[in-house]
Design brief:
single chain; Serine Threonine Protein Phosphatase 5, Tetratricopeptide repeat; two-stranded antiparallel sheet; 20 helices; 12 strands; 37% helix
């Protein structure tokens, strides 16, 4: 596949248009070049739009440069003690720079400001002879999408926040209160609605990574799903669920030249191959692009491989959630299950997690006491290593190699899960005929792709409550490590129940040539208080902005 050219293009020319020092909602860029140098230069115009994508948060080991967000939830722990994820998950969290976790407040506003520089200063002044209306519209649609996504990143962290809808000047009143959650939702949805007709449905392979019409639709559907969820929908307004379902249906039904734009990826080995396949992958809706590398493999690789740093260690809590291949729950109290606990599991288990006895890069993973993957610094603390996202072609030991790693911010399976959840809450497990499929049918598509056998691919849930549990369980498995879990638990108002339980792992003792005994051990105790449903605003912003009230409890 061709390189994602606009991330690799020269960004230094346009960086001065958006670069900031100590960026907040109050600051103008410190270095600022008059935008009139851009009006008549199509290369600079495109580069400026391309630069906006760099403000979108990624998902690979982005906490402190070494931890995944999953390691601050019940999905995993980080192998290195004292990591940013461990501090967050164990409740060491506050409003000062030293205690802020996952704090992107200033960075997100910096990106939002950059979108206004384009829409207010560049877009209205582009010379017609340089760029026709169709191309101007596509560029502007991308800017609107990035602005909407950055606003959503604020919304999901802070709830209501100071809503900025234009560039601010020093002469403006910079004491801006936070808007209500619903006001922020309406604004983000309006940006998506404005962007959707402007954006291309598809792009050439050389432009892979740009925001498409489907990306804006998927963002709108996710925003509305969050708004319909218990944390934010305190009156249990069913119409909000119906609105979220209708938005997800638009993504599912999107066509191009008579063919569906999106589908679940089933080529190659299916679920695991999806994460390292870009060309011809109809499941990808929008990804955070990365340079081809082996960094992800090295950061999360088993320690028996030279340079492997352990990284994200999947928890036993998550491992236990993977069903048997026949769709029945795994149970340690069942002697047959306990005797060979990693056999006959949901196929996504072996495609997401490296376990004792599995093969990786030509070696067998040994996480039993005394095994080669448990003997050195940063060895797994749970008995498991991360498999998902990693490519066997991206080797960091001789012979070395690299692979595509583009973190999926929106993918078709998530849209199906969003649709299933919203449809079930609005209409129950089996939908009215006006929709393309029911909640049950959407879930069945995902379980079929996973490889669950026979009729176990069809959820047996009969009631809305049973289907709700099935959908939540499916999200946990299908979207593991993709930065959904910590927000799902919040919006469902289950974080106090789940994120206060210890994270567990397996102690594995070898008792024969191929026989092992297993015992559960606590790896990390976790802390979650009610105030943690929303992030705290940085204290420096509270000090600057006298109208900004801190989120409750902080």
């Amino acid at each position: 596949m061709k390189a994602f050219k606009y991330f690799l293009a020269s960004l230094t020319i346009v960086a001065v248009l958006t670069s900031c020092s100590n960026e907040t909602i109050q600051n103008e860029p410190v270095q600022y070049v008059s935008p009139d140098i851009v009006y008549g230069n199509v290369v600079l115009i495109t580069q400026m739009v391309n630069r906006l994508y760099t403000h979108i948060p990624g998902g690979y080991n982005r906490l402190g440069g070494s931890s995944m967000v999953a390691a601050a939830t019940d999905e995993a722990v980080n192998a290195a003690r004292g990591s940013e994820a461990e501090l967050w998950g164990t409740g060491s969290w506050g409003t000062t720079p030293a205690t802020q976790r996952d704090d992107l407040f200033s960075a997100l506003y910096a990106g939002i400001r950059a979108t206004f520089v384009y829409s207010e200063e560049i877009h209205p002044n582009i010379v017609d002879a340089v760029m026709g209306k169709a191309d101007r519209d596509v560029h502007y649609g991308q800017v609107l999408f990035v602005r909407a996504l950055l606003n959503f990143e604020l919304l999901k962290r802070y709830g209501g926040y100071p809503l900025i809808q234009r560039s601010l000047k020093p002469s403006d009143d910079l004491n801006i209160p936070k808007s209500s959650y619903d006001e922020c939702v309406r604004y983000i949805v309006s940006l998506c609605d404005e962007a959707i007709p402007l954006l291309n449905i598809v792009y050439p392979t050389s432009d892979f990574g740009r925001a498409t019409r489907g990306a804006a639709m998927a963002l709108k559907a996710r925003v509305l799903l969050y708004a319909a969820s218990p944390l934010h929908n305190t009156s249990s307004d069913v119409s909000k669920w119906a609105e979220a379902a209708a938005a997800a249906e638009q993504v599912i039904s999107l066509t191009n030249a008579g063919a569906k734009v999106y589908d679940l990826y089933t080529a190659g080995t299916g679920y695991d191959a999806f994460f390292n396949t870009l060309a011809g992958n109809k499941e990808i809706i929008f990804s955070k692009m990365e340079v081809r590398s082996n960094t992800i493999e090295q950061l999360n690789g088993p320690v028996s491989l030279v340079g492997g740093r352990g990284g994200t260690n999947p928890s036993l809590n998550l491992v236990n959630a993977y069903e048997r291949i026949d769709g029945t729950p795994f149970d340690w109290n069942n002697p047959e299950h306990a005797a060979d606990p990693f056999a006959n599991r949901d196929p996504r288990f072996a495609k997401s997690i490296l376990y004792n006895g599995s093969s990786w890069m030509g070696t067998t993973i040994d996480t039993f006491e005394g095994g080669k993957d448990l003997q050195t610094i940063n060895a797994t603390r749970t008995g498991f290593y991360l498999r998902k996202f990693l490519s066997q072609n991206a080797r960091f030991v001789a012979p070395t190699g690299v692979a595509d790693h583009c973190f999926p911010l929106f993918r078709y399976a998530e849209v199906l899960l969003n649709y299933a959840e919203a449809m079930n809450e609005a209409y129950g497990p089996d939908a009215p005929a006006a929709y393309s499929m029911s909640a049950r049918q959407a879930l069945t598509l995902i379980r079929n792709r996973a490889g669950l056998t026979g009729n176990q691919s069809v959820p047996s849930a009969k009631t809305k409550e049973e289907m709700r549990d099935a959908i939540r369980r499916e999200r946990r498995i299908e979207l593991a490590f993709e930065e959904h879990r910590h927000m799902d638990l919040r919006r469902w108002k289950l974080a106090e129940e789940v994120l206060t339980k210890p994270v567990t792992g397996l102690k594995i003792v070898k008792t024969g040539d191929s026989e092992f005994s297993y015992s559960v051990q606590t790896v990390e105790n976790r802390v979650f208080n009610p105030k943690m449903y929303f992030y705290p605003f940085p204290q420096e912003e509270i000090s600057r902005n006298s109208s900004l009230n801190q989120n409750p409890g902080w």
